[in-house]
From TrEMBL:
NAD(+) binds at D45, G46, N124, E125, R150, D152, T163, A164, Y165, N166, K167, S168, A187. This is NAD kinase. One of its GO terms (molecular function) is NAD+ kinase activity. The lineage of its organism: Bacteria, Bacillati, Bacillota, Bacilli, Bacillales. InterPro entries: ATP-NAD_kinase_N (IPR017438), ATP-NAD_kinase_PpnK-typ_C (IPR017437), NAD/diacylglycerol_kinase_sf (IPR016064), NADK (IPR002504). It holds the Pfam family NAD_kinase. The gene is nadK. It comes from Marinicrinis lubricantis. Involved in the regulation of the intracellular balance of NAD and NADP, and is a key enzyme in the biosynthesis of NADP. Catalyzes specifically the phosphorylation on 2'-hydroxyl of the adenosine moiety of NAD to yield NADP. It is found in: Cytoplasm. It is an enzyme of class 2 (transferase). The active site is at D45 (proton acceptor). Belongs to the NAD kinase family.
Amino acid sequence: MKYYVLSRGDQTSDELMERFHQLAAKNGMQRDDLSPDIVVSIGGDGTLLQAFHHFLDHLDHIAFVGIHTGHLGFYADWKPNELETLVELMSQSERASENKRVEYPLIEVEIHSGGQAKTYYALNECTIRGARSTLVAQLCINGGLFEMFRGDGICISTPSGSTAYNKSLGGAIVHPALEAIQIAEMASINNRVFRTLGSSILLPKHHHCEIVLMNDQPMFITVDHLPIEVNDLKSIRLRVAQQKVRFARYRPFPFWDRVKEAFIGSKHDGSPQ
Ligand code: NAP
């Protein structure tokens, strides 16, 4: 098996990366920085986002695994003290052809500016915000005007990204088995003159939405952790991407267990303290 490791770059993650290389060599795994089968990210969810964008052009034959060196992550779900077990499972499953993979949906983001269109893919979300003033834009669903949005911005997230920025905006947490995108508002202006729905919306795979700008003010756009530079932005079209991202699963760790562990914890189980 060919593998690549990306470290967050802090001392703990770098040391763990070195240890990973030693264990991998012992288990007959081959380091390959250009065309790996498995990409291991060591750090946090942010590190896995970086790994995802680094290997965006290889998604059809790569699976990701995350080891967290901080708190529990949604993409990084192996602990540092489980490193030996992970490497063993990786090499065994390769030999036995037991490659268990789960696939999560992505967002296809098509940015139209100055007569051109450019496509990006988001693992967590795409956000659009007014850089200097209120975002004023039409939100269209399947080609028809849904609402005129005025406010700080709009966040469109994947199911696996629903636990990130989307959650801070009050959006719902969505299981990644659902092929959908979620539109969440950022501080919309609502009064007798301006009106938005006020709730998050989930669009299924065969629907799309478009954010059409009503003025030429500067906007701040992000795709995951990446700021996107755009001049003369006209509109952004978003939908569930055809392509998915794959994660190698060497043991079960259900999504709702991860949500519970990250946001609720075992202290809050209702029993008297
Ligand atoms: P960052 O500001 O360094 O990290 C943002 C936090 O989001 C980190 O704690 C990160 O976890 C966590 N995170 C990333 N993906 C997640 C996911 N799918 N579920 C739950 N938590 C997640 O930025 P970054 O490391 O470059 O990551 C960019 C991401 O930050 C964006 O995609 C966006 O979702 C998120 N963000 C959130 C807010 C907000 O909640 N108000 C604002 C801006 C950006 P780790 O510590 O494990 O890396």
